[in-house]
Amino acid sequence: xxxxxxxxxxxxxxxxxxxxxxxxxxxxxxxxxxxxxxxxxxxxxxxxxxxxxxxxxxxxxxxxxxxxxxxxxxxxxxxxxxxxxxxxxxxxxxxxxxxxxxxxxxxxxxxxxxxxxxxxxxxxxxxxxxxxxxxxxxxxxxxxxxxxxxxxxxxxxxxxxxxxxxxxxxxxxxxxxxxxxxxxxxxxxxxxxxxxxxxxxxxxxxxxxxxxxxxxxxxxxxxxxxxxxxxxxxxxxxxxxxxxxxxxxxxxxxxxxxxxxxxxxxxxxxxxxxxxxxxxxxxxxxxxxxxxxxxxxxxxxxxxxxxxxxxxxxxx
Length: 316
What we know:
Layout: H1 2-19, H2 25-43, E1 53-56, E2 61-65, E3 71-81, H3 83-100, E4 105-115, E5 119-128, H4 130-146, E6 150-160, H5 162-188, H6 193-225, E7 227-235, H7 246-253, H8 255-293, E8 296-297, E9 312-313
Parallel strand pairs: 3-7
Antiparallel strand pairs: 1-2, 3-6, 4-5, 5-7, 8-9
Helix pairs in contact: 1-5, 1-6, 2-5, 5-6
């Protein structure tokens, strides 16, 4: 009965809200979705560059953007560098992101492995403001050329997150409306203690959903306003390195060890087969004695020297 009362109260509250044209949830959702879109579309810069954006060449930024157009850009850069310069170039790129600060560039991952004399590689992943990122890409190419390397790979990809953004903002507006109505019920419609506790539980659930949707929207906004970059560093091929002939040296130093392993294998085989050989020899000798004692002789022991297909027995 308490659940029916609560559902009826919430439904009537929402109906009263929708009955007022100035408080139409659909209109509120639509306006709440479009206003942030237009605001961020103008502030995000070249993140929104596309068929629906006109760019002013003198200013270098979009002059106007169509509301509701959300794109998250991801870039890839592959650098081939000399082994002795790879670590220093990579450290310089990492330091540039850290110096820019977390509001401009966020370092997500850095990894490097290998030996500069043999093979070394690394990767750098970051998220940054689009205008700063474009300058970083140009400086990264210049640093690779200065170190005697080159850019081997450039990639650009984009993901349309418009629907996710609009849906999340609409859900936020609906949750806020429901939360406000539940608060109004608690303030203006006193009832039994059990009913009030049920409303408070529903309010806590709605508030939890509201917080989760707010966090999801913040992540989407960050993906739109900041672009991702994945930089890969590989070592340039060299005809000869200080360790080119190391395999030959290792093989020569291990000659005696390899020889001893071979001799040990032969001894193991002999030791394994010797008992079986002795056993078979003894069995053949015993069989021969048994046959001779009963008057049998082998076919190749005949007086005429001819072979026979089977053993023969001498008569009495």
